[in-house]
Design brief:
The complex is a heterodimer of chains A (about 110) and B (about 110). By secondary structure, chain A is mainly beta. Helix content of chain A is about 0%, strand content about 55%. Chain B is built from no helices and ten strands. The chains are: A mainly beta (about 110), B mainly beta (about 110).
Chain lengths: ~110, ~110
């Protein structure tokens, strides 16, 4: 099976803009989670989607939002970008039989100037 | 082998040594724990997991130990190889349903030959 794929891999934006990142889970996986990784804060949980519904949410401002489609693909949106949003954004998926074991994609590296 | 009693950000070992990486978790109600390995430029890669009803679980060259009394997790790598050089993260699932992983700070393992 192909692994989790994320697009784009690299992105440069300026402050105030918005950005949408995409994630395709492993085939058959229905749960998709998003994480932010920075040198200062480490890996932080953003949210988890299952069957097009947000099931868990981390402690991030409302500028960070996501959604999941009927084919389990997911998108994450960040509005009104700030310099501090520069990070590696990781997507992970898991299957119904073992929902807690998450498999990560390579991430999208976002740089906000 | 070399071990660390407290979390240290880096661990340097010789090829063939046994490595022990320690991690403290925060939520006594967590019942699922997982170790990931992250190489430069890649997303975290699943190594091994353990549930709270177990104290020990073994995989190929890796063993995870769970001490619920002191909320401590450790990862033992036998016969460490240069390819094991990476950052290692422990994580606990705090999701009420589904998955919301909270990650530790990570330990950079350097293996010299």
């Amino acid at each position: 099976k192909a692994g989790v794929t994320q697009t784009p891999r690299y992105l440069i934006k300026t402050r105030g803009q918005q950005v949408t990142l995409s994630c395709s889970p492993i085939s058959g996986h229905r749960s998709v989670s998003w994480y932010q990784q920075t040198p200062g804060q480490g890996l932080q949980f953003l949210f988890e989607y299952f069957s097009e519904t947000q099931r868990n949410k981390g402690n991030f401002p409302g500028r960070f939002s996501g959604r999941q489609f009927s084919n389990s693909r997911s998108e994450m949106n960040v509005s009104t970008l700030e310099l501090g949003d520069s990070a590696l954004y990781l997507c992970a998926s898991s299957d119904l039989a073992d929902q807690e074991t998450q498999y990560f994609g390579p991430g999208t590296r976002l740089l906000v100037l | 082998g070399e071990s660390v009693g407290l979390h240290l950000p880096t661990l340097s070992v010789q090829e063939g040594d046994n490595s022990i990486i320690n991690c403290a978790y925060s939520n006594s109600a967590s019942d699922y724990f997982i170790w990931y390995k992250q190489e430069s430029g890649k997303g975290p890669q699943f190594i091994i997991d353990i549930r709270s009803n177990m104290d020990k679980r073994q995989g190929q060259r890796v063993t995870v130990l769970l001490n619920k009394t002191v909320k401590h997790l450790s990862l033992q790598i036998a016969a460490t190889q240069p390819g094991d050089s990476a950052v290692y993260f422990c994580a606990e699932n705090i999701g009420q349903a589904g998955t919301a992983l909270i990650f530790g700070k990570g330990t950079t393992l350097s293996v010299s030959s």
